[in-house]
Amino acid sequence: MNKVTIEITKEGWQTTVEIDGAKVIEKHVKTDWGASQETENFESSEFIDDELLNTLESADSSAYDIMKELNMCSD
Fold first, then answer.
1. Total domains present in the chain
2. How far is CA 8 from CA 2, 5, 22, 45, 61, in A?
3. Are 51 and 58 spatial neighbours (Cβ–Cβ below 8 Å)?
4. Which H or E element spans position 28?
5. Are 24 and 14 in contact (CB under 8 A)?
6. N or C: where does the chain have the smaller number of CB atoms within 10 Å of the terminal CB?
7. How far apart are alpha carbons 59 and 7 in whole angstroms?
8. Short-list 21, 19, 20, 25, CA closest to 6
9. Which domain holds residue 46?
10. What is the pLDDT along the chain (75 residues), one digit of tens a residue?
């Protein structure tokens, strides 16, 4: 099964891409100035085509915004 899973918390987000049995994970962690990527990026993956890569980059921007909003919510 081909799928993309995005988990967002107030500490960061993790995007997992699974295509034809291959899997790659990109993880971002909240910092004082924004977010820092802690793993290899999707661009280095052979099985993610350019169209999906562009869409994933847009999802990263949304994930960052959601992370910021989660930090504004009370626990």
1. 1
2. 20, 10, 22, 22, 12
3. no
4. strand 22-31
5. no
6. C
7. 11
8. 25
9. 3-72
10. 899 999 999 999 999 999 999 999 999 999 999 999 998 888 888 889 999 999 999 999 999 999 999 999 976
Q: Are 25 and 6 in contact (CB under 8 A)?
A: no
Instruction: Say how far residue 34 (Cα) sits from the centre of its chain.
Output: 14
By C-alpha distance, which of 55, 45, 51, 54 is closest to 20? 45
Residue 68, number of CB atoms within 10 A of its CB = 13
Q: Measured between alpha carbons, how far is 36 from 19 in angstroms, rounded to an integer?
A: 25
Residue 31 CB neighbour total at 10 angstroms: 9
